[in-house]
Amino acid sequence: MRQRTYLTPTLRDIPADAEIKSHQLMLRAGFIRQTASGIYSYLPLGKKVLRKVEAIIRDEMDSAGGQEVFLPAIQPAELWEESGRLGDYGPELMRLKDRHGRDFVLGATHEEVITTLVRDEVQTYKKLPINLYQIQTKYRDERRPRFGVLRSREFIMKDAYSFDTSQEGLDKSYQAMYQAYQNIFSRCQLDFRAVEADSGAIGGTDTHEFMVLSDIGEDTIAYSDQSGFAANVEIAPVVCDYIKSDEAIKERELVDTPNTRTIAELSEFLQVKAESTIKSLLFIVNEDPVLVLVRGDHEVNEIKVRNAFNKATVELASPEETAKVLNCETGFIGPVGVSDKVTIIADKAVEAIVNGICGANEKDKHFRNVNPGRDFEVSRFEDLRLIQEGDPSPDGQGTIKFAMGIEVGHVFKLGTKYSEALGAKYLDENGKSQTMIMGCYGIGVTRTIAAIIEQNHDENGIVWPVSVAPFDLHLIAINVKDEDQKKLSEDLYETLVKERFEVLYDDRPERAGVKFKDSDLIGLPVRVAVGKKASEGIVEVKLRKTGEMLEVHVSELVEKLTQIFTELS
Question: Measuring CA to CA, which residue among 152, 143, 138 is closest to residue 20?
Answer without folding.
Answer: 152
